């Protein structure tokens, strides 16, 4: 077979897709331009006319500040409701805040603190130190956070000589390398670890506070966040953690001095499942608590209090309270209740009045706006001129008021505030910028790649045959182009079109899991309906009135037709059933209001009911067992478990061993931490060793399948030579029920007969002697291509299951059942429509099964609990086998990607099975039945047909892969179109952009896996050739 | 002969369409607060009942129904009984299919079943009228060469249109437009109804324009 052209053509198409995706994403997700300028003390000069006092020299309102950041401190955690008699684990656990607010209202205040999306910790730290709005594209940097280059609070503190001491989350250390006076970072990546960071901070916090070698103390606690990720907010562990934090805040408040400001804040909230990253209100609304032993708020709480404090506002407020310039790129506005409405003490910068603070703030924001609009042209010109003219009006009014010496009008403060708000809103609206040229180029390349795939799938036979490249090429191209227009109207492509159209609507993307299932079901039901329409589903002649001539061909006997139809309908039932059951494994998007996420999605260790835990565990183990059993049963059925090769070893021993590892791993990880205290070391060792052993077994298995993919067992029959050629060829005896041995090991000696015949022919031509070789029985030769592929899928499936929560074993079992059902439906419909009956038909795989296959991949993406949102990424996958975290970023990223795209990978690797399955089933079904015991031996050829027609094999493989790539590629193209067309849509960052990222990454995973699958098939082909040569050395001549 | 049959079909369809119209208008006059969206189930049953009654009457009067093999009363009764059983089974079948397509399993089961009743009265009932209670004949009719009379072709067209309409009717449900007709199962039953009416109009027209190509060898 011509393997190389197939592979190179596919590689070329994939490369084209990748280029298109790269171009489009590059144009769609631009990074916000960073202004690399810093504010200096001279910038904050008082309005002209007064003596130029140095802002930084003046006495600040507070000399020192303590910044306690409690990661994911949601506003709901901070509130205290005395009437709540039965608080849930996360309610009423921080009474200190409410006590202090009610007892000392002029010393403390509690506000909701609204973060800007994306609500990931690194983006938030960036946001509340620079005062800017980090953009969407920064989300990807969470694995490798890099130093902040923009002007920020830490830099400004350093400029004026304030000593910043930091302790806690080590993200800070990577964001501000070597900026701290002293720094005590603790590892943050391991979300299972609730205590290391917090205990590390507590060891040093109080001692540091009592000492005097600090001006700003930043402590970032991670326990609450990790508790959320691990157990969710509604768990006793959260109550413990919050109570601990309550104690910490009390102790810190007791140690504060009069010149010190305390800020307790969360960087973001969390959803009901304990995650964050998106922009739902549960994730964005954190809490901020301000406190000082000296009176902090000049006025008691009043009507003018802000309802919500935007996170950007912290930066200018802290800067002015501590007497440092506001960072250059900040777009926040000062928190007015902290400033007196009139200047109280003359000359002290700390005594800035509200109007002065607003003026300094507005001047800084205006300067940033000018610099920024000079660098980038993305802020709309009309709103820019509007803002600028508003500022010049405000500035002249303010200066007039200051020069006049009289009290400024109260409206001025309100207008300054309005100006600051509108600048921030303008920035927020425009910092999603696009490069239309790159986007258009990307779309064009993607469209071209899709078209190329379509052409490739239509012309595969011509291309592989490679004859007449001068003339036939263009003619065939024109022909297929004409055919394409008509071809798009066939139902499978119509379904694909619907699927692509559904990507353009946010409602359908939100309900994608259901929509894909709906389409999959519709297309699956179309198969028997279409067959019946062609009169192929029912055996002909059951109706005596019927004229026999009306049917296309009576290729199959009535009983065979009846059996095939039965198989088809039974498999359809199985498919529909597993589709329906798999709906139970879906996760929930925040947009789906009343949705309840599947119970199987949470890891077993989160379950508190022991009985339920055991039940889930047993269910998972049973599913895994059935997965392995079904796989081995299938291989055994076709006689692929008899030889002693590498692949067979993997199927016989490695696969069960892998499952044992998995089962033990689940058991270990489900045990509660505190139940076996004396065994804790053993448990932690097992937590590390078992998954790693599974990884090793998986790697070994894959290697063995690659090195020795043949699963053929050769049994030499010396007796045959003695008895001579007069012996009738041994029969294939399936489903006769005479010999269970034969039934188990599909005995395919006819293949050898055939093989020998053809070899004899060539040998006669070559002049060798015939008949002296021993007769041979080959077990499993009929499934020589599909068996290693099946095994590879099985091994990969178990490996990918390891990265999922335990409950997903059920879903993976459904996946296997659905795959089998799809393959059987395809095989039966092929047999019924008699596609292989005609020799010229080739091995073409029609569109319907390919589209079904691809839809099933998308469907199981959802049915394994994934969703196209960043919040739903199962980060825990990175810690399977590495409970202590990682040093690099490549390995965890790979593990998470494998977890996320598990179904894409499995279906793409298994895609060539669509080509093999009709041939595999041929023996058991269509031709085998009525005439199995007839005189024709050639019926049991199965996959050896492919070897007989290497060209058709290659072209069919190319066509199948091209079709799969087309189906997957058009979906990427459609979601890219959606992102481009709807880039100003309300939902673009919530729905379309994440969908595009997931679709594109899924395509990468699919195409790479598809290439892997195709390469394995080619590898098997090479091995089979070698095997034939070895078996019959003369053939090499 | 062609013209005669097509004319008969067209008038039959006109009667059935009129019955649908009446089943919508008459309750609107008689029942206070009746509307297609608001009291959807009522409309649904009224339409189903009307279509069932009128179809049975018209097809029986025209004598299109496949002739019974025996003329004994017992045989006729058993045939009637089987028809009723088939009707009910078909309701269950449609209910299952609709649930598998994503309808809620337990909540609004009544709505789902009502939709199944409507679909049955629009499709299965017609099969019963034209072909009698024989599943094999039904399956046979829905193949390219399975139609043996103009009525069979007509059956193919109306049933396909109804099923397609109901299928298409599911599309607007996930959209966030908050319209009254997006409530389950309004859009699906409306889609089925519109598809059915289209089929009623389309079938005679299609047969009229393709009468040269249509050949029924076995009748
Ligand atoms: Zn965080
Ligand atoms: Zn977190």
From TrEMBL, chain A:
Transmembrane spans: 6-31, 443-464, 476-497, 509-529, 566-585, 614-630, 650-668, 689-707, 784-803, 810-827, 901-920, 1002-1020
Pathway the protein acts in: Glycolipid biosynthesis; glycosylphosphatidylinositol-anchor biosynthesis
Cellular component aspect of the GO annotation: endoplasmic reticulum membrane
MF-aspect GO terms: mannose-ethanolamine phosphotransferase activity
UniProt xrefs under Gene3D superfamilies: Alkaline Phosphatase, subunit A
Listed PANTHER family: GPI ETHANOLAMINE PHOSPHATE TRANSFERASE 3, PHOSPHATIDYLINOSITOL GLYCAN
Keyword Membrane applies: yes
Main location: endoplasmic reticulum
Pfam family, one: Phosphodiest
InterPro entries attached to this UniProt entry: Alkaline_phosphatase_core_sf (IPR017850), Phosphodiest/P_Trfase (IPR002591), PIG-O_N (IPR037675), PIGO/GPI13 (IPR039524)
Keywords associated with the record: Endoplasmic reticulum, Glycoprotein, GPI-anchor biosynthesis, Membrane, Transferase, Transmembrane, Transmembrane helix
Membrane topology qualifier: Multi-pass membrane protein
GO process annotations (BP): GPI anchor biosynthetic process
Homology family: Belongs to the PIGG/PIGN/PIGO family. PIGO subfamily.
Subcellular location: Endoplasmic reticulum membrane
Name this protein carries in UniProt: GPI ethanolamine phosphate transferase 3, catalytic subunit
CDD domains reported for this sequence: GPI_EPT_3
Automatic annotation (TrEMBL), chain B:
TM region positions: 12-30, 42-63, 84-103, 115-138, 150-171, 183-207
Main location: endoplasmic reticulum
Keyword Membrane annotated: yes
Recorded topology in the membrane: Multi-pass membrane protein
Intracellular or extracellular location(s): Endoplasmic reticulum membrane
Keywords on record: Endoplasmic reticulum, GPI-anchor biosynthesis, Membrane, Transmembrane, Transmembrane helix
UniProt-listed InterPro entries: GPI_biosynthesis_protein_Pig-F
Source taxon at top rank: Eukaryota
GO biological process: GPI anchor biosynthetic process
Protein name (Swiss-Prot/TrEMBL): Uncharacterized protein
Organism lineage: Eukaryota, Metazoa, Chordata, Craniata, Vertebrata
């Amino acid at each position: 077979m011509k393997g190389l052209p197939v592979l190179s053509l596919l590689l070329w198409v994939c490369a084209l897709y990748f280029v298109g995706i790269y171009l489009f994403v590059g144009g769609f997700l631009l990074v916000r331009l960073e202004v690399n300028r810093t504010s200096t003390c001279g910038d904050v000069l008082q309005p002209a006319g007064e003596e130029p006092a140095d802002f930084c020299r003046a006495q600040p309102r507070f000399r020192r500040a303590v910044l306690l950041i409690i990661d994911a401190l949601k506003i709901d955690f901070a509130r205290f409701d005395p009437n709540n008699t039965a608080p849930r684990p996360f309610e009423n656990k921080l009474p200190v805040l409410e006590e202090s607010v009610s007892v000392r209202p002029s010393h403390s205040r509690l506000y909701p603190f609204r973060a800007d999306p994306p609500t990931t910790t690194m983006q938030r730290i960036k946001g509340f130190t620079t005062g800017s709005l980090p953009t969407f594209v920064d989300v990807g940097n969470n694995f490798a956070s890099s130093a902040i280059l923009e002007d920020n609070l830490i830099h400004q503190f350093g400029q004026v000589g304030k000593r910043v001491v930091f302790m806690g989350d080590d993200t800070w250390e990577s964001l501000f390398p070597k900026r701290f006076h002293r720094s005590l970072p603790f590892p943050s990546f391991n979300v299972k670890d609730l205590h290391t960071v917090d205990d590390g901070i507590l060891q040093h916090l109080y001692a540091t506070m009592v000492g005097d070698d600090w001006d700003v103390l930043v402590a970032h606690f991670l326990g609450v966040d990790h508790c959320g990720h691990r157990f969710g907010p509604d768990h006793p562990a959260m109550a413990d953690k919050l109570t601990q934090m309550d104690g910490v805040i009390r102790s810190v408040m007791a140690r504060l001095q009069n010149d010190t400001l305390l800020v307790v804040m969360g960087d973001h909230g969390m959803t009901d499942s304990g995650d964050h990253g998106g922009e739902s209100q549960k994730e964005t609304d954190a809490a901020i608590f301000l406190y000082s032993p000296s009176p902090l708020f000049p006025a008691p709480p009043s009507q003018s209090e802000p309802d919500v404090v935007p996170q950007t506002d912290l930066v200018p407020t802290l800067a002015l309270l501590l007497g440092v310039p506001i960072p250059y790129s900040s777009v926040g506005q000062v928190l007015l209740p902290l400033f007196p409405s009139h200047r109280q003490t003359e000359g002290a910068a700390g005594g800035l009045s509200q109007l002065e603070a607003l003026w300094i703030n507005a001047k800084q924001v205006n300067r940033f706006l000018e610099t920024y609009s000079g660098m980038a042209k993305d802020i709309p010109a009309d709103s820019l001129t509007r803002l600028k003219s508003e500022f010049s009006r405000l500035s002249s009014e303010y200066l007039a008021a200051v020069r006049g010496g009289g009290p400024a009008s109260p409206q001025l403060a309100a207008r300054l505030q309005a100006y600051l708000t509108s600048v921030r809103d303008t920035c927020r609206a425009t910092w999603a910028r696009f490069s239309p040229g790159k986007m258009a180029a990307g779309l064009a390349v993607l469209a071209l790649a899709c078209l190329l795939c379509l052409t490739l799938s239509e012309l595969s036979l011509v291309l592989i045959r490679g004859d007449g490249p001068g003339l036939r090429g263009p003619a065939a191209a024109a022909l297929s182009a004409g055919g394409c227009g008509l071809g798009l109207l066939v139902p499978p492509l119509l379904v694909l079109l619907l699927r692509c159209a559904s990507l353009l609507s946010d409602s359908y993307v939100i309900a994608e899991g259901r929509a894909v299932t709906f389409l999959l079901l519709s297309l699956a039901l179309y198969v028997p309906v279409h067959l019946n329409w062609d009169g192929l589903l029912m055996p002909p002649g059951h109706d005596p009135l019927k004229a026999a001539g009306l049917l296309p061909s009576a290729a199959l006997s009535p009983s065979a037709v009846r059996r095939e139809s039965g198989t088809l309908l039974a498999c359809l039932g199985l498919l529909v059933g597993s589709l329906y059951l798999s709906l139970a494994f879906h996760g929930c998007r925040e947009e789906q209001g009343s949705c309840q996420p599947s119970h199987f999605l949470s890891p077993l260790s989160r379950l508190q009911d022991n009985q339920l835990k055991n039940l889930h565990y047993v269910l998972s183990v049973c599913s895994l067992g059935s997965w392995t059993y079904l796989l081995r049963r299938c291989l055994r059925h076709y006689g692929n478990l008899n030889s002693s090769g590498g692949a067979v070893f993997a199927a016989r021993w490695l696969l069960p061993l892998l499952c044992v590892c998995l089962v033990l791993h689940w058991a270990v990880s489900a045990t509660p931490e505190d139940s076996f205290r004396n065994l804790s070391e053993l448990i932690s060792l097992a937590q590390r060793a078992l998954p790693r052993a599974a990884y090793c077994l998986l790697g070994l298995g894959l290697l063995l399948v690659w090195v020795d993919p043949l699963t053929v067992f050769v049994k030499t029959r010396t007796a045959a030579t003695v008895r001579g050629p007069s012996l009738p060829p041994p029969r294939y005896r399936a489903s006769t029920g005479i010999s269970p041995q034969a039934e188990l090991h599909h005995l395919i000696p006819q293949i050898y007969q055939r093989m020998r015949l053809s070899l004899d022919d060539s040998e006669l031509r070559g002049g060798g002697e015939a008949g002296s070789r021993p007769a041979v029985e080959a077990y499993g030769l009929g499934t020589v291509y599909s068996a290693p592929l099946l095994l590879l899928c099985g091994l990969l499936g178990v490996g990918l299951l390891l990265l999922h929560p335990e409950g997903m074993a059920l879903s993976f079992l459904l996946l296997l059942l659905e795959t089998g059902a799809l393959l059987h439906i395809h095989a039966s419909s092929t047999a019924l429509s008699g596609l292989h009956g005609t020799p010229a038909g080739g091995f073409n795989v029609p569109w319907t099964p390919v589209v079904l296959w691809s839809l099933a991949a998308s469907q199981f993406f959802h049915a394994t609990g994934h969703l196209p949102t960043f919040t739903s990424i199962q980060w825990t996958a990175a810690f399977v086998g590495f409970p202590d975290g990682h040093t690099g970023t490549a390995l965890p990223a790979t593990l998470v990607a494998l977890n996320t795209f598990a179904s894409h990978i499995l279906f793409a690797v298994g895609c060539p099975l669509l080509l093999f399955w009709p041939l595999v089933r041929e023996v058991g079904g269509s031709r085998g039945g009525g005439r199995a015991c007839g005189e024709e031996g050639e019926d049991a050829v199965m996959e050896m047909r492919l070897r007989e027609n290497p060209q058709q094999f290659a072209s069919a493989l190319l066509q199948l892969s091209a079709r799969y790539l087309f189906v997957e590629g058009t979906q990427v193209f459609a979601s890219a179109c959606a992102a481009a067309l709807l880039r100003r849509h309300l939902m673009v960052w919530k729905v379309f952009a994440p969908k595009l990222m997931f679709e594109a990454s899924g395509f990468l995973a699919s195409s790479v896996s598809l290439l892997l699958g195709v390469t394995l098939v080619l590898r098997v082909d090479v091995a089979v050739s070698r095997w034939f040569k070895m078996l019959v050395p003369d053939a090499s001549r | 002969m062609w013209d005669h049959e097509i004319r008969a079909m067209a008038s039959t369809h006109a009667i059935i369409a009129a019955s649908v119209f009446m089943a919508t208008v008459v309750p609107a006059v008689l029942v206070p607060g009746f509307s297609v969206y608001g009291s959807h189930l009522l409309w649904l049953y009224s339409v189903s009942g009307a279509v069932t009654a009128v179809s049975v009457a018209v097809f029986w009067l025209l004598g299109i129904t496949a002739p019974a093999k025996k003329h004994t009363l017992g045989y006729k009764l058993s045939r009637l009984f089987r028809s009723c059983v088939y009707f009910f089974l078909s309701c269950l079948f449609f209910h299952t299919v609709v649930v598998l397509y994503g309808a809620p399993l337990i909540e609004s089961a009544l709505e789902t079943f009502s939709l199944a009743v409507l679909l049955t009265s629009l499709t299965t009932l017609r099969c019963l009228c034209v072909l009698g209670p024989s599943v094999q004949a039904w399956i046979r009719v829905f193949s390219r060469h399975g139609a043996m009379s103009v009525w069979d072709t007509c059956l193919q067209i109306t049933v396909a249109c109804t099923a397609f309409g109901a299928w298409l009717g599911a599309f607007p449900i996930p959209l966030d437009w908050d319209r009254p007709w997006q409530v389950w199962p309004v859009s699906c039953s409306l889609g089925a109804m519109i598809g059915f009416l289209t089929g009623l109009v389309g079938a005679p027209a299609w047969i009229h324009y393709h009468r040269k190509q249509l050949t029924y060898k076995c009748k």
